[in-house]
Amino acid sequence: MPVEPSATAGAGKTASSRTMISVDRVTKSFGSGNHLVTALDDVSVKIRENEFFTLLGPSGCGKTTLLRLIAGFELPTSGQILLDGEEIGHLPPYKRPVNTVFQNYALFPHMTVAQNIGFGLEMQGKPKADVDKTVQKMLAMVRMEHLAGRRTDQLSGGQQQRVALARALAPHPKVLLLDEPLSALDLKLRKEMQIELKRLQSETGITFVFVTHDQEEALTMSDRIAVMDTGHILQVGDPKEIYDRPARRFVADFIGDINILNAEMTAVKGDVGEVKLASGATITARLSSASVQPGSVSIAIRPENVGLCGVEDAARTAIGTIENAVYFGSGTNTHIALDGGGTIVARNSGETGAPGERVGVILPDRHLQVLID
Amino acid sequence: MADTTAPLPAAAKRRRPMADLKKQPGFNQIAWGCIFILYAPIIVLIAFSFNDNRSVVLWTEFSFRWYVEAFGNEGIRKATIVSLEVAAVATVFSTIFATMAALATTRTQPFKGQTLAYAIINQPLMIPEIVTAVSTLAFFSLIKQLTGVNGIGYLMLAHTVFCIPFAYMPIRARLEDMNLTMEQAAADLYAPPLQVFRRVTLPLLMPGIVAGAMLAFVVSLDDVIITLLVAGPGETTLPIYILGQIRRGITPEINAVSTLLLGLSIAFVTLFFLLGRRRK
Lengths: 373, 280
Hints:
The structure holds 2 protein chains of 2 kinds. Chain A is an alpha+beta fold.
């Protein structure tokens, strides 16, 4: 995989390069015989100390199963899970220094906010004075001091979310697992909690493993993202890398909008390939993997990287006819039918042509990527 | 949202005449008729328990006379104590067993024969009580003959057994309602299995256990058929005593005792209902 100079977007502490969790060739199947379902198929990934790591994928891709395997709610069918160098794959949940924030929070309804937050510490056998002190600290950190004595069913969704976070962080776990914790909140609250989560992560220095199906959330919050589909990890990288250099067609499709064109690769030169477009133009595009062979390939480019120019402009890569232009506020999406087949979308904030008009299309080499399926 | 609101009023309009059963001719009359037949005897019983007269058909004057006599009656007092003793023992043990059964059928990995186990636990509800009574009588006679041991323990055991399914139902329902993630959260927060049970499962299950216990208590207090066959001499429970007295004609004293028993049952059922509602 091509490696660009690190553009890690994480504010605050940057992730160290020490491995915190190592998932080594883990397979997890449910059921048996004809009803055997493989939720994770030979998955390996390394999560670094102190990073905000996101497992991103559609429902059923295995991301929650992977999280539950790390937490200990499921045991791997085969493979190893190492936490800070120690095999934990077969330990029960209560013996793992890992805490979880559940999707529905799972707060104890028969306990107060403070009792909820103190539960983990109490179970670890910490002296009462220490428990109380840490609970106070946690309450302050999530700004819930005034609600310490409340029952949890008297709290709003956002408040419950904060209590769940404080409860999971109180024992200072080595890793905090978050299972789509923001999905139950409305949009405004979700945006607030995204910022809050980032703040808590850099304040505590704890490794966060975050599960989501929301690609925007993943891009905004993560130091690194693992994109998953049907029990496999397809690509691991920082948000910029995942967005700018999707390795596979699924990743390109899943994250943001992208144009995918069919083309013929004629030659490979190092990490770029010479590609002949349907329009006849020859361009060079980056290879997403060394395993790409010359022949029929898919090339990808983001709409915002597609340029428009006059038909006679020397910079043009291809020529096409505008099908329609869709204005969406901060810009316009221009749909163009290319001569020689295929359509492409160009996104820009300036003037664009009217339907039926002939335009030149510029596909800058540095934004083109050859995908593997 | 906007496009789904349009067809709604039309659908609602079409449904209304069908749904409104109350507008059907005769509906009210039948409903009131049923309610009357159900409750009129009870109201008559309660009314005549306050009648200052030996007759159960002629009303003379309001009085607590029969209540006073009932409390003074040695037979009723003794029978009440036996009833409460048997019900208390049966309630405690049947609730413990029912709780264990409910945990075993909801909080374990699904196992082979789970449906069968469920059916066996609930079977006493389906078997005619007289069959259970006769077989229990025969079974206990055999044991008594073999061991020579007698006593009220047999009656308590019989009550415990038939109370189990009644206690089991609300406890199981509560467990099925309870989210498994609550227990997982506790385990995640370093609680070993026993602590998970003590600190999370049991407190959350409490309303179900209390409901089950109350149901078991009322069912035990009420029982006639099994008790009639299993109870030995000197083990007369209140319903059996009432039954015996009625053979010699209805007295207002029995009305008074029945009214008290009814009051107790209503109190328990109401509590059961309130507890059930609080968990929603």
